[in-house]
Amino acid sequence: MNAVRPAALSAVAVVALACGCGSSTTTPPAITNVPDAQEPAAQAPDASANDAALSLVLPHDRATVKAGRTATGSRLTASVKVSGNATAMQTVRLHASCAARSCSRFVLADADGRFRATLKPVFPRDRKKLTVTAEYATADEQSAPATVTVRVRKPAARRAPHRRPNSTPSTSNGGSSSGGGGAGDGAATAPAPAPVAPPTGSTSRGTMVVIGDSLAVGMRPWLAADLPGWHVSIDGRVGRPLSEGMRVLSATTLSAPAQTVLAVSLFTNDDPSQTTRLHAAVAETLRRAGPNGCVVWATITRPPVGGVSYHAANALLQRGSEADARLKIVPWAQYTAANPGVLAADGIHPSPAGYKQRALMYAQAAQRCS
Q: Are the C-beta atoms of residues 111 and 3 closer than 8 Å to each other?
């Protein structure tokens, strides 16, 4: 897709306490097996092609973050404001060294490669340092994360309340002020957002093979978790066109096709008027899946290319699903039309929440195969 390879990241972090639509005129027939004799489709232009150098400029090592107490007083917390630069439209994972889920979050670099976020880690009272890490959510092993270590300034010790001589401690509202973490112990922390529900029947087992572009790459942090017990493999490459994806498929061995879900995330980098090639590709995936197999494709969200929208391509996929029960459709175009906030500014790539939702929708489609 239009994002670039997650090769490098340049981040500037500040630590502080504050704590694709006209349509084609061609109407292809229902999906049938068509020989895969396609030439490379005309590719839509990539939106970004520059990699940023991997470095963290701020905070400096041994910068100080002021900590406060949690509501119960048993642990410390801090507000770590992070801002910086990354490759444009790439998802960045920010992490502060602690075991709680609140220590991490995903952010999306904008079209200029800038991002910002606030981490609010909770950590033991004896912690003296925190390590802040910025890395690509889809980084390969050659893309090293950028890290800095900051000092923790602990809050001043609490003083015992002053009482007048012969005074009697109040027992109103259910006990003394030193009780174990009741409402009077301080403001309660905000509840974590409700997780996205796993797909129905997620206790089943299976194999899912995904071949795709950057939209497939972006699902990596979540897809396997949405299919517990499944074996999930993703072969994705940023900017991959349909023709390349089909060559990857031809070189891929599908063991036990009847028990394997073949999932595809392609054609977003192709000329939307080339629906005949899409028709042939869908037919080829069904042929590879076999009479008892299952194939998943997603409808496409992207602004028109050369004045042609992806409406005809999406209609072709939908008709194919109606004609062959082995073809399951992820209604990505419909979902993004109803929820435009899940897309980045380019109208193509999802936000971090959008990638999470897309992964869930692929997992749900895989579950419908069983």
A: no
Read off the pLDDT of residues 219-234 as tens digits, 9 standing for 90 and up: 999 999 999 999 999 9
Measured distance CA(155)–CA(135) in Å, rounded: 30
Nearest CA to 93 out of 355, 363, 331 is that of: 355
Task: Please name every residue paired with 124 in a beta bridge, in sequence order, or none if there are none.
Answer: 75
Q: Full-prediction pTM beyond 0.90?
A: no
35 pLDDT more than 90? no
Closest by Cα among 32, 109, 107, 21 to 334: 21
Q: DSSP character for 346?
A: T
Which among 60, 111, 123, 62 has a CA at the least distance from the CA of 87? 111
Cα–Cα distance between 306 and 141 in angstroms, integer? Answer: 37
Rounded Cα gap, residues 253 and 70, in angstroms: 53
9-153 — its CATH code?
2.60.40.10
CATH topology of domain 207-368: Rossmann fold (3.40.50)
Full DSSP string of 144-207: PPEEEEEEEEPPPPPPPPP--TT-----GGGS-TTSSS-GGGSPPPPPPPPPPPPPTTTT---E
DSSP readout, 285-337? HHHHH-TT-EEEEE------BTTB-SHHHHHHHHHHHHH-TTEEEE-HHHHHH
Token pair of 313, please?
Answer: 């391509």
Residues 6 or more apart from 294 whose CB is under 8 A from it?
Answer: 260, 261, 262, 326, 328, 366, 369
Residue reference for tokens 């500037």: 12
